From TrEMBL:
It holds the Pfam family TetR_N. Keywords: DNA-binding, Transcription, Transcription regulation. The keyword Transcription applies. One of its GO terms (molecular function) is transcription cis-regulatory region binding. Residues 3-63 form the HTH tetR-type domain. Residues 26-45 bind DNA. InterPro entries: Homeodomain-like_sf (IPR009057), HTH-type_TetR-like_transc_reg (IPR050109), HTH_TetR (IPR001647), Tet_transcr_reg_TetR-rel_C_sf (IPR036271), TetR_C_16 (IPR041678). It comes from the Bacteria. The keyword DNA-binding applies. It comes from Raineyella antarctica. This is DNA-binding transcriptional regulator, AcrR family.
Amino acid sequence: MPETTRDRIIEAAGRLFAERGYSAVSIRDVAAKAEVSPSLVMKLVGSKEGLFRASTRFEPQPLLVDVPLAGLGRALVADILRRRAAAEPDVLARAVVLLLPAPDPEEIRRLVREAYVEPLARRLDQATAETVIALLAGLSVSVRLYRQLDEATIASEQLVARYGALVQAVIDQGTPQGSEGGGSA
């Protein structure tokens, strides 16, 4: 499917908002990144806030529903580190960058809940799902924004083993006995 000019503008805005935050991005910045005029950005999207809303989407993480609970902690941590190594966007770190300067911070919170907490809460309980996402957000911020825990400090495999075990312990404590994760009492 061919990419439209509007799609290009929204993609450019999403990247800039994720990199710099809402307040540090102008319509001119978005136009330059999308290689269009600022007036075309305004015509197609309407306003900076409209551009922010259109570009701020959080796709559900397939691992939250596809991986058996017994290995989910390690899989989620490994995915964060894989994304870092591949220089792919990290949605949880992006959510932190977007939240504080957002025109509507509650909208970002809602999007994160819908894309991450709710799918996991359908498999566990609400408190456990929120705790797991909080642990993952902390790791995401540490490795992406603070640039901590790089390969020079700790090998990815070792970090997956250590941090994955922490996340898995929370998952196991929130998994009812006899369910797919096996849980512990």
